[in-house]
Design a protein that fits this description.
- The chain has one domain.
- The longest helix has 15 residues.
- By secondary structure, the protein is mainly α.
Length: 73
């Protein structure tokens, strides 16, 4: 499966993967419908960074969530 092509399905996958990795309890803040496909490249880069990083500190998790909030519609 390649996530390189911007599509609604791929956007759903990367947002859900990030929510799972960030252990977001309130999934409503990570609803894929709240993110615009025009921001796919930025969101994909964030997703890739999370995949490479693995474990995050509390401060890093907060920073990623704040970055995601900046990309919401």
């Amino acid at each position: 499966m390649s996530l390189n092509e911007p599509s609604k399905e791929n956007l759903d996958i990367i947002i859900n993967n990030m929510a799972r990795q960030l252990q977001v309890v309130n999934r409503s803040i990570m609803n894929p419908d709240d993110y615009d496909l025009d921001k796919y490249e930025e969101l994909k880069s964030l997703h890739d960074m999370l995949q490479q990083k693995g474990q995050l500190s509390v401060a890093e998790t907060q920073a990623v969530i704040e970055e995601l909030a900046a990309h919401r519609k």
